[in-house]
Specification:
There is one protein chain. It contains 71 helices and 2 strands. It is mainly α. It has a two-stranded parallel ribbon. Helix 4 (about 40-55) runs antiparallel to helix 5, helix 12 packs parallel to helix 16 and helix 28 runs parallel beside helix 30.
Length: about 1550
């Protein structure tokens, strides 16, 4: 046969053989062992390569189909296992360089849109060649071919990314592989000029275009996830690495320097030297300027590339001596942006908003790089370089300010960066800056508002530090007083700017603040006030100036007794000028009579707003100064004697219009009530007047009541419209739409002042609005924005959740009434009269529900005491009589079986209202309110049913919520108040009767989690209620008898119906079983706690329980009969059977069954327990992540396994362990599930191991060791390993003694060795870090802790270090990193605490392991560009705290480690030099290393100063100086006072 097949080569070379046959022969030759050819593999590779090369060189004509098959054949060979095996065995097989040229040519053809072909096979060939070292030599030996391949692949990737079509993984995988190969080759190149030429000629343009497209693409779910999440980021990083290594090598710096520096600079540095022929900057900029992509994208690509190139340039060359070169590079790169053309006045009309955004973003990144790398040194630039940099930035500022782009966030950020570089850059154009970026800027979007506020805050900070705040506000005043660019200017200060202003004003000297205020007051007085009447423009200017005055006066430092007298006198003078020169003329202007049409004019509105804002500001400030400074004399004192009675009633404004008649005041008030800001200021004035009255010794009650009513009344009409917008909290932002929010915020935040002085009708009004807004807030919750603004809904919600609300008893009571009324309104009207319905009666207006609160507070006249007292008692008794009547009504309605039928939308509304009830502090309700709430919930549970079309899950959720709220009421201090209106047994009969009736509809939802939650809530309610009955100690036996009798009668009915099993209701069965179980559990606990004196009553109760227990057994057996073998056990059955078993065991213990075990085992219920046990063992491995089932099942096993005699047949403890092992190895069981049931698992194992024999224990150990075998990981059986590791950890939690303990510790070396091997294998797969590695670390830590004094061989302890050094600590997800870090730390701490002798011998391993932790914390806790979120920082902070603790422990406890202190410090500073840490993380690490520095003696410090490298030495010096200044001084201070 060999002779026959040896002629294949001749047929392949023959021109007579068809190509179809040649391909078949070639394929056969490759796979067949019978075909014998000398060097067969190489021959076949050469044949296919030569054929393809001949075709592409036009020497051979082939059909397209044949060509595709040739490529497929080549691909099959390259990826075949046969070839890989040959190469591994050392055989040489290669490809020709010409095939690489052909591949490149094929890819270049695919780049032409008209010639697009399927290149998947060619890409696959490329991938195979590049990933096989012996084949990839065709590219690596000829760098030009690899460069060309990379260029073509980059162009293809750009072509695929340009449209919005879905992106596949193949091309990007090959591209990433090619980048990796080229970067490897690039590092090996010795000629930097050649590399530079390769990159600029072939790679720069496609790489920059590719990076841009990857960065700006809107990835969708249609795109391949690997490309979207990993490859795109990886390729962008590779592009940056390639460009940095290719364009900015250290050897090229001299060329850059020669090209960038002016002639005179060069002559000073390097006289007479020849210029380099290489012009790198010019080369790069030429490539950037030429067309290499679509014209529409060119500008955006260049803008994105410029900042990248500058970043790479600075990363490579930025040193203090090179800053001028770096600046010139900046100016040259800036020339590539279209912004540079604006300096010459060209291209202005060519830039669209999108272009402006891209250009400004690029400029922002350039300026940010200049700032962060200290490229601009103000002094050096001025002294040495004739302000060349300053001139450039100055021109840049002029361009930005002359082409305002206030709608683009980057424009503000660029100006802020220029301010940060040097405020003098924008100083000459400060007026333009203030106008275009602040006063006249129309900015409303949050994304633009934030950078604008950051810029203005930066201006505040800069000018306050320079003590030039008046200079800044002179410009503000000038701009405000100019003709407005827009007749409706935005407010001068937002809430954020007001906060920043406050910070700055607290730092400024009072004289400067008063200078600014005087300037504004004078301008108002001389320019604005005389011309304001009838002028809209002047009125707008007046409002802007008023807002500035308000902001300054409200946020400046208050006067006090240490304020210098000149400042106090100046302040008094200023307020007097405000009063006489501005406010008084404005108030006189407002009191003039006007026609109706004049009252709506803009100027009048703004003048009114300004007047009342200034009045409020003046009075508030004047009052504050009068209280805080005894030297201050109010200007109001001069006119105090001539105030009329009519004016005195109007909120203190009488100071400004003494002697004004009532008619004039009414005109002013009417005008103020027409405008939102004026009305709000009037409310503030009224509130301020109330505070002033309350500060007096005798408060005028009528005035206070009148003021409180006025505040509520002024907003009542607008609150009823329900039209409002969020408000930022600043008075300047109030308008018609934000006023309702501001008004409601004022009312709610001052309720503690208002509430004592408002009528009950007003209290009810507030309660109604509270409820309405909360309901509205629930409807809007889905679309609610996350902005930190104030809304009516947020105010109401935060108030109702606050601790103040329960203290306002009257409002709390009114709110509950309103809530009950809303619930009643949701229910459909019944056939009966509405007055008879429970909920209608509970919210009736005629019932004085509040009397319980108000009665103790009312003053009682001794003469009228008897009649008053009787009236109060009657009113109180009326409310309780109503509650009794409602309670009877609820019980009767439940017995009558005529519930109200709810539709789905009504159920949803009820659920929404119940959610509001849950916000209340139900445990702090008064007795009557607690009873009312209980009755409402009981009525909803017992007297409502869902319609046939309703969702059953929704109904279950509704019932669960009701029971949950009942439980909250039971926890209250007045929970027992319900027994004033109810018999305890009636409540439970009503509840259980209604639920058993309702359960008929739940038969098909018994397996869903909502049903289990519902049962849990009902059980908790029953348990708490029964506990209350017992704790009251009133008619306990009678109540329990009635409850038991009722439950037994329910069961009897159920049994009668279910003889044929067709009508069996499993839902009712589960409910009854749960009720029986709860009853048994509570009564049993009660019996156990009874003293010996009451043993007779205990026997009576025990006798009562016997029939209940029998019914439980029958219910369980009946349920099991209806439950097929394949069906899972109902969750309710498990706790019931557990309770039964506990009861039987406790009864048997009393009877002394241990003496005669057979007596107990003869009981008929033992078979039930054994059947249950077998069913649970069957279901346990299949339970998955059903935690409720698992916890209940394990609790049953704890009780069952405590009696080994109960095991059926030949089963032993090993059977249970085997089932647990299968459970832990299940696919749905995660580490989180294991943690959730760890307590129950431990309890089961404690019972198993405590009662098993030594032989059984050996078998269990064998099972564990089998799971730890390394072959499990090799066979992809990670769950088996997790199961064994978890069992090992659980075994360590169990108390062992005797032979079992010896057996375990005898196997411990084998266990720790197995864990080390498992770790080594698992660390190779990233997905196994959290599932295998973290549990192994936890187990090793536990093993070392428990092995203190037992693990005597130091080698076995030292094996733990091999585990720690294997575990990866970088490139992990945050949650994985946290788990690994804590695991490694715990292992180290266990060794430190429990095995100190081993630690000294293995000091290098310990230090290496600990140093890896330190390095990882530094990496995770480094400063992010955007500051990083609080959530991201939480884990590094926790880890840094643990590192600090370890450093402290080493310094305090481990004296022998003193010799390593210098080494530890050296390791620390070496890593610290590489990163910039987040301040919070750095604080922890620094505090820790200070303790190690304290161990260093003077010789160590000198050694470190000499031996550390230059950069690291600087870091160490700074660290040591800080240590001496802060830590050492503090420590010495503490020692000084230490005994």
């Amino acid at each position: 046969m060999a002779a026959v097949y040896s002629g294949i080569y001749l047929k392949l070379k023959s021109g007579k053989t068809s190509w179809e046959d040649k391909l078949k022969l070639a394929h056969f030759a490759w796979i067949s062992h019978q075909c014998v050819l000398p060097n067969k593999e190489q021959v076949l590779l050469d044949w296919v390569s030569h054929t393809l090369v001949s075709y592409y060189n036009k020497k051979l004509e082939l059909e397209d189909e044949v060509v595709e098959k040739l490529w497929a054949y080549l691909d099959n060979i390259i990826h075949s296992r046969r070839l890989q095996t040959l190469l591994k065995s050392g055989k040489t097989v290669g490809l020709s360089f010409s095939i690489a040229q052909v591949i490149n040519k094929r890819l270049s053809e695919a780049c032409v849109p008209k010639l697009q072909q399927n290149i998947g096979t060619v890409l696959s060939c490329s991938s195979g060649i590049l990933s096989t070292p012996s084949l990839s030599i065709i590219y690596t030996a000829k760098c030009e071919l690899l460069v060309d391949l990379l260029s073509q692949l980059s162009k293809l990737a750009c072509q695929q990314l340009a449209p919005e079509d879905a992106v596949g993984p193949q091309l990007f995988s090959v591209l990433q592989l090619t980048f990796a190969q080229y970067l490897l080759l690039q590092r090996q190149q010795t000629n930097p000029n050649r590399v530079f030429g390769q990159v600029t000629s072939h790679l720069l343009q496609p790489c920059l275009f590719l990076r841009h497209l990857l960065a700006v693409r809107n990835w969708t779910q249609g795109d391949d996830s690997r490309v979207r999440q990993h490859l795109s980021r990886e390729i962008r990083n590779q592009v940056e690495t390639l460009l940095r290594a290719g364009l900015f090598q250290p050897e090229l710096f001299s060329s850059y320097k020669e090209e960038l520096l002016p002639e005179q600079e060069l002559q000073e540095k390097k006289k007479g030297a020849l210029k380099s022929l290489l012009l790198p900057v010019n080369t790069v900029l030429t490539k950037l300027g030429s067309d290499f992509c679509q014209p529409a994208l060119h500008g955006a690509v260049v803008a994105g590339s410029v900042s990248l190139l500058y970043k790479l340039f600075l990363d490579s060359y930025c040193k203090a001596e090179n800053h001028l070169v770096c600046f010139h590079m900046l100016s040259r790169l800036f020339g590539c942006l279209r912004l540079s053309g604006l300096q010459q006045g060209v291209m202005e009309d060519m830039l669209s908003p999108a272009d402006w955004s891209a250009e400004l973003l690029a400029l922002e990144q350039l300026l940010s790089l200049v700032l962060s790398n200290d490229v601009y040194n103000v002094a050096s630039d001025r002294i040495r370089h004739k302000e060349i940099q300053f001139g450039f930035y100055r021109q840049l500022a002029q361009v930005l300010l002359s082409h305002s782009q206030a709608s683009i966030p980057a424009w503000f950020r660029c100006l802020k960066l220029l301010m940060s570089l040097n405020h003098l850059i924008v100083e000459p154009d400060l007026d333009d800056l203030v106008a275009s970026a602040w006063i006249d800027a129309d900015v409303s979007e949050p994304r633009t508002k934030k950078p604008q506020e950051a810029l203005i805050s930066s201006m505040f900070q800069t000018y306050s530090k320079l003590r030039q705040f008046p200079r800044l506000f002179e410009e503000v005043l000038t701009v405000i007083c100019q003709p407005a660019a827009d007749e409706m200017r935005l407010p001068v200060f937002s809430a954020a700017l007001t906060l920043k202003l406050r910070e700055c004003l607290l730092e400024l000297p009072p004289s400067q603040i008063l200078d600014i205020l005087c300037l504004f007051v004078e301008k108002c007085q001389t320019l604005i006030i005389p011309a304001v009447e009838g002028s809209d423009d002047m009125a707008l200017k007046l409002l802007s100036l008023s807002l500035v005055l308000h902001a300054f006066l409200f946020n400046m430092r208050s006067l006090d007794d240490v304020t210098p007298s000149p400042v106090i006198l100046r302040t008094q003078s200023l307020l007097a000028k405000m009063q006489k020169g501005i406010i008084q003329p404005l108030m006189e202007l407002l009191q003039a009579p006007r026609r109706e049409e004049e009252k709506s004019e803009l100027w009048l509105r703004k003048a009114s707003d300004s007047a009342f804002l200034l009045v409020y500001t003046w009075i508030e400030v004047d009052t504050l100064f009068g209280v805080s400074c005894s030297k201050y004399v109010s200007p109001a004192a001069e006119v105090a004697g001539v105030v009329t009675a009519s004016a005195a009633r109007h909120s203190g404004t009488s100071v400004f219009l003494p002697g004004v008649e009532e008619q004039c005041w009414e005109r002013v008030m009417e005008l103020a009530n027409s405008f939102a800001t004026s009305k709000y200021c009037l409310e503030l004035l009224t509130l301020q007047n109330m505070k002033t009255i309350l500060m007096q010794t005798e408060a005028d009650l009528k005035t206070l009541q009148h003021a409180a009513a006025f505040i509520l009344e002024s907003g009542r009409s607008i609150m009823s419209r329900r039209e409002s917008e969020p408000w930022d909290g600043d008075i300047s932002a109030i308008n018609d739409l934000t006023y309702p929010t501001a008004h409601w915020h004022l009312v709610i935040s001052n309720l503690t002042i208002l509430l004592p002085y408002i009528s009950l009708k007003d209290v009810e009004y507030i309660a109604d609005i509270l409820l309405e807004t909360l309901v509205l807030g629930q409807a809007q919750e889905a679309v609610a924005d996350q902005e930190p603004s104030i809304s009516i809904e947020k105010v109401s919600l935060s108030f109702i959740k606050s601790s103040f609300f329960p203290e306002m008893k009257v409002l709390h009571c009114a709110f509950l009434t309103s809530l009950i009324h809303q619930v009643a309104g949701v229910l459909p009207s019944a056939a009966k009269d509405a007055a008879d319905l429970p909920l209608q009666q509970l919210s009736a207006d005629r019932i004085p529900w509040h009397e319980e609160i108000l009665a103790p507070c009312r003053p009682v006249n001794p003469l009228e005491a008897p009649s008053e007292s009787k009236l109060l008692k009657d009113e109180l008794s009326l409310s309780w009589k109503t509650l009794e009547r409602v309670a009877q009504c609820v019980v009767l309605l439940a017995k009558s079986g005529c519930p109200v039928i709810l539709k789905e939308h009504q159920l949803e509304r009820c659920l929404g209202l119940l959610e509001i009830v849950s916000f209340l502090k139900l445990d702090s309700l008064l007795p009557s309110d607690s009873t009312r709430c209980f009755l409402v919930l009981l009525s909803l549970i017992s007297n409502t049913r869902a319609g046939a079309s309703c969702s059953k899950l929704l109904l279950l959720k509704f019932l669960s919520t009701c029971f949950h709220l009942l439980r909250c009421l039971q926890a209250g201090r007045n929970a027992n108040s319900i027994f004033k209106v109810f018999h305890a047994s009636d409540v439970l009969e009503t509840v259980m009767g209604s639920q058993l009736t309702a359960s008929k509809v739940f038969t098909d939802v018994l397996t869903v989690p909502v049903w289990a939650q519902y049962l849990q809530e009902v059980q908790a309610f029953l348990e708490n209620f029964l506990q209350m009955i017992i704790e009251r100690r009133q008619s306990v036996r009678l109540n329990l008898e009635k409850i038991m009798s009722f439950l037994m009668s329910c069961k009897a009915d159920g049994a009668a119906k279910s003889k044929g099993c067709k009508n069996y209701n499993p839902a009712a069965g589960q409910l009854l079983l749960m009720a029986f179980t709860t009853l048994c559990h509570v009564v049993t606990l009660y019996l156990q706690q009874l003293p010996e004196k009451k043993l007779q009553s205990a026997d009576v109760l025990a006798a009562l329980l016997e029939p209940v227990v029998l019914q439980m057994v029958r219910t369980v057996e009946h349920g099991l009969q209806n439950n097929t073998q394949t069906q899972p056990l109902p969750l309710t059955f498990i706790p019931s059977v557990t309770t039964l078993l506990k009861a039987d065991l406790s009864h048997a213990v009393k009877k002394g069954w241990q003496k005669e075990p057979g007596g107990f085992l003869d009981q008929p219920r033992v078979k039930l327990y054994q059947k249950f046990y077998s069913q649970i063992l069957r279901e346990l491995p299949c339970a998955g992540d059903n935690l409720r089932f698992l916890q209940s099942a394990l609790q049953f096993l704890v009780v069952f396994c405590s009696v080994p005699e109960l095991y059926p047949g030949k089963e032993t403890a090993v059977t249970v362990v085997f089932a647990i092992r299968k459970l832990l190895a299940g696919p749905a069981v995660t580490t989180q599930v294991i943690q959730s049931m760890e307590v129950e698992l431990t309890e089961v194992l404690v019972q198993l191991l405590g009662n098993c024999s030594a032989e059984e224990f050996y078998t269990i150990m064998k099972l564990v060791l089998q799971g730890l075998e390394v072959k499990n990981v090799w066979q992809q059986n990670a769950k088996e390993v997790l199961s064994a590791v978890t069992l090992t950890k659980l075994l360590l939690s169990c108390p062992l003694s005797g032979d079992k303990e010896k057996a375990f510790w005898f196997a411990s070396p084998q266990i720790i060795t197995a864990l080390a091997m498992q770790t080594k294998e698992a660390c190779q797969d990233q997905s196994l870090i959290s599932t295998i590695v973290v549990p192994i670390l936890e187990t090793v830590a536990a093993l070392l802790r428990q092995g203190e004094g037992v693990l005597l061989n130091p080698h076995h302890v030292a094996l733990a270090f091999s585990i720690l050094l294997t575990v990866p600590l970088d490139h992990l997800k945050t949650e994985d990193y946290q788990g690994v870090f804590l695991g490694v730390h715990e292992v180290l701490f266990s060794i430190v605490q429990c095995h100190p002798k081993v630690l000294l011998k293995a000091a290098p391993s310990f230090l290496n392991s600990f140093h890896r932790l330190v390095v990882s914390v530094m990496h995770e806790g480094r400063q992010k560009g955007d500051g990083g979120s609080t959530e991201e920082l939480e884990v590094p902070l926790r880890c840094a705290h643990l590192v600090e603790r370890m450093y402290t422990h080493i310094a305090a406890e481990m004296e022998d480690f003193t010799v390593f202190s210098a080494f530890i410090v050296a390791q620390y500073v070496t890593e610290l030099q590489k990163v910039t840490l987040h301040p919070a993380v750095k604080n922890h690490l620094t505090e820790g290393i200070y303790h190690i520095l304290a161990l260093c003696i003077e010789r160590d410090i000198k050694f470190l100063n000499v031996s550390l490298p230059a950069g690291v030495r600087e870091v160490f010096k700074d660290l040591y100086e800080d240590y001496k200044r802060y830590h050492k001084a503090k420590k010495q201070g503490e020692e000084k006072y230490t005994a």
